[in-house]
Design brief:
Structural class: alpha/beta
CATH superfamily of one domain: P-loop containing nucleotide triphosphate hydrolases
CATH architecture of one domain: 3-Layer(aba) Sandwich
Helix content: 55-70%
Shape: elongated
Oligomer: single chain
Number of helices: 26
Low-confidence stretches: 85-93, 691-702
Number of strands: 16
Radius of gyration: 55 Å
């Protein structure tokens, strides 16, 4: 049974859905023409139509919905000269009847079991819950993955090209990353590295760097550092007499330094004697010619050669070291080294500080040749620095190659980017995949449980179809329609069987009568009787009977009040029974509406209104007006903005027809002649004098009305006719 109908974004219904909620079998719906009733009946007749994609029905099970409206009449009568037969089951074959009744009983039991399962164990509720859980899981996962788009298509946008073709929707982005296989290990590259690479190779400032400008240190410091001379105790000639004295002092380097401060003793020009030189240490003249010669001979040629060698080594070591020191700033100007500046400076410092220390030791050895000095080897520091410089050279080569092959580099960046994203968002993706499998499995189990029962029901329906094949006919429906025509005192036409499975309309003289030649009232009567039988029977001989929901939209168009009363009785006798699961009746006639309410007191009442957009509102029985009052209500609703201009104009015409048709039609004609003299009222007069019958469509080919002028003209007619008091009472 339908429990809720929601209609939005179709015809006169707007963005906010119009809701009809019901818990009752009988539902009566009133609304003036043009309010939106037919849209409701068309939706129930063709709910899968794309026009109704924003509409929904809740509570509907396996029931068949049968709808009587203008579309039904056109499809079954206007477009055809014969009507398809309505099949009913013959009651002559007892064995077939028993087989069919047994199958029906079993279907009822299975349907009850299915209903109980759905109600008590909540299969449909569980199914809906699982679907909601799956949808919510998908939504959460999509929103999380959408962070990638928000983060990398905003901000610095350096890596936005990685998202090309994937920014259109959360769905497409999630589907894309879900298909990427997770890397076995965490990607080595980081997003920051990819940004640097993208800036360096893809932007307008991408450039080729000279590969030869980074040179490794090629001077062999180790050859000097391993010289044995630094381990030698360099002393003078020990065969001289003074050697013992110098050895006694154990400080030949002190003596050597002192020699630098004295000269050779000279002969005195006055006395002619050789005078001693002043000692640089005690400041007394104790250095005789003999002592001077002894000291000089002590520091012989071999000693001097070793000193010269030390000084040469010192010069080479110092010179190479200075070149390296000066090159530091030049190297730091290179972008690749600058990116690794801390590492470079640390390597450079370790190397140059050792060189500085070694150079100091060489100087110390020169000053004190007899002292042993140990130079620390710098081969490790030099090797580390050279390895670093070689890495930089390789980075430059790799960079240059990437710049020369921008397209391939771009592909590589994109691939690395998505590997990083897949790794970083693995928890979201894996959680979705695992939860989705579990939820879908539960959903499948619920569906299978429902499917098993439905399959059993279908098997028994097939039994009924097979059994009734030779026992159905269209004759009973023909006789029923004929009987109803007689009941309604209609003898101007009848209906007869045409061939085996169709009907034809016949005039009293037994001539064929086309549907379009009937009066409007006759068309309504015959089409509704046909629909009535269709609800009782089947559309085809092999159709299996199922529970039915009946929708009837204005079955009293162009009928007199007598026929409206009779149609109401037909509805009561045929539809207000236990044969049907649910009934929806829509009408613009308050008379018909009142008759239906009298017939059935247990129903839900609704009213369709159209201020700007159509709405469906519950209606209390105490609030129902008569038809004449309802037209005045449209005028009052328009002043509050609750009805449209077209409904306003149509209601004015109906009020004038009702009132002056009862009071004095000539008085109305005289009033019309008087206001027609005013040019601003001429369009109002032309509209009022068109055919009416409460026909909303009569205005569709007219220009848009001016409600202010229409209201003035409408009031003037009552004033001219002398019924201003009636106008004031009704409008207030």
């Amino acid at each position: 049974m339908i429990t809720k109908i929601s209609i939005k974004n179709v015809a006169s219904y707007g963005e906010n859905p119009a809701i009809l909620e019901t818990s009752k079998k009988v539902n009566l719906i009133y609304g003036l023409n043009g309010a939106g009733k037919t849209v409701l009946s068309n939706f129930l007749a063709d709910k899968d139509n794309q026009d109704f994609s924003n509409c929904s029905i809740e509570g509907l099970g396996n029931e068949k919905i049968l709808v009587y409206n203008q579309n039904f009449v056109e499809n079954n009568f206007y477009l055809k000269d014969t009507q398809k037969g309505i099949f009913t089951l013959s009651s002559k074959n007892k064995i077939v009847d028993e087989k069919i009744e047994s199958a029906k009983k079993k279907i009822g039991e299975l349907q009850l079991e299915l209903d109980n399962k759905e109600k008590n164990t909540g299969l449909n509720v569980d199914l809906s819950k699982k679907q909601t859980e799956i949808s919510n899981l998908f939504e959460r996962s999509r929103s999380k993955i959408w962070e990638i788009k928000i983060k990398y298509s905003g901000g610095d946008r350096i890596l936005e090209f990685c998202l090309d073709g994937k920014k259109g929707s959360q769905y497409s982005l999630f589907e894309y990353i879900q298909k990427i296989e997770k890397p076995e290990d965490k990607p080595e590259k980081t997003i920051e590295k990819l940004k640097e690479e993208a800036e360096a190779t893809q932007g307008e400032n991408a450039k080729i760097y000279p590969e030869e400008e980074i040179k490794e240190v090629d001077f062999s410091f180790l050859e000097i550092e391993e010289k044995e001379i630094f381990l030698d105790v360099i002393v003078g000639n020990e065969n001289l007499q003074i050697a013992n004295l110098i050895k006694h002092f154990d400080n030949p380097d002190w003596v050597k330094r002192g020699l630098d401060y004295i000269g050779e003793p000279q002969e005195n020009s006055v006395s002619g004697e050789v005078e001693n030189e002043q000692c640089p240490f005690c400041q007394k003249k104790t250095i005789s010619s003999n002592l001077y010669e002894q000291i000089k001979k002590y520091f012989d040629e071999s000693y001097q050669e070793k000193i010269i060698e030390l000084k040469e080594l010192d010069s080479k070591y110092w010179g190479a070291w200075q070149i390296i020191k000066k090159n530091e700033n030049n190297l730091l100007e290179n972008d690749f080294i600058k990116n690794r500046e801390v590492e470079f400076k640390w390597l450079y410092k370790n190397f140059t500080e050792k060189l500085s220390s070694n150079w100091s030791k060489i100087n110390e050895k020169i000053k004190t040749p007899s002292k042993i000095v140990n130079l620390e080897p710098t081969i490790l520091e030099k090797g580390n620095l050279n390895d670093f410089l070689n890495e930089i050279t390789e980075e430059i080569k790799t960079h240059n190659l990437k710049v020369k092959n921008k397209t391939e580099t771009k592909k590589d960046i994109i691939n690395n980017f998505w590997n990083i994203m897949r790794w970083d968002y693995d928890q979201t993706i894996e959680n979705y995949n695992s939860q989705n499998i579990i939820l879908n499995q539960k959903k499948l189990e619920i569906k299978e449980e429902i499917s098993k029962l439905n399959m059993e029901i279908r098997k028994h329906k097939e039994v009924i179809q097979f059994a009734q094949k030779d026992s159905v006919n269209i004759d009973e429906a023909i006789e029923n329609i004929k009987a109803e025509l007689i009941f309604l005192a209609i003898d101007s036409f009848t209906i007869e069987k045409e061939e085996e499975f169709s009907y034809k309309i016949k005039r009293g003289n037994n001539n064929d009568a086309k549907f379009k030649t009937l009066s409007e009232g006759e068309k309504t009567i015959i089409s509704f009787l046909y629909f009535l039988e269709l609800c009782k029977g089947r559309e085809s001989e092999d159709e299996t009977m199922t529970e039915k929901i009946v929708v009837i939209d204005d079955p009293i168009s162009s009928l007199s009040h007598t026929y409206i009363f009779n149609v109401a009785q037909l509805v009561k006798r045929n539809f207000f029974t236990d044969k049907y699961k649910q009934i929806f009746i829509l009408t613009h006639s308050l008379y018909f509406f009142h008759e239906l309410i009298k017939i059935n007191n247990s129903q839900n009442l609704f009213r369709v209104l159209k201020p700007k957009y159509s709405t469906i509102n519950p209606l209390e029985k105490d609030n129902i007006q008569n038809e004449y009052q309802s037209y005045w209500q449209v005028l009052k609703d328009h002043d509050k903005g609750n009805s449209s201009d077209s409904l306003l104009a149509n209601s004015m015409r109906n009020i004038l027809e009702y009132f002056f048709g009862f009071i004095d039609k000539n008085m109305f004609n005289e009033s019309i002649k008087k206001i027609e003299k005013e040019s601003e009222y001429q369009f109002f007069v032309r509209y009022i004098q068109r055919e009416s019958h409460s026909d909303f469509t009569n205005i569709t080919d007219m220009k848009e009305i001016d409600p202010i002028i229409f209201k003035k003209a409408f009031r003037n007619i009552f004033e001219i006719a002398g019924h201003e008091e009636h106008y004031n009472r009704m409008i207030n």
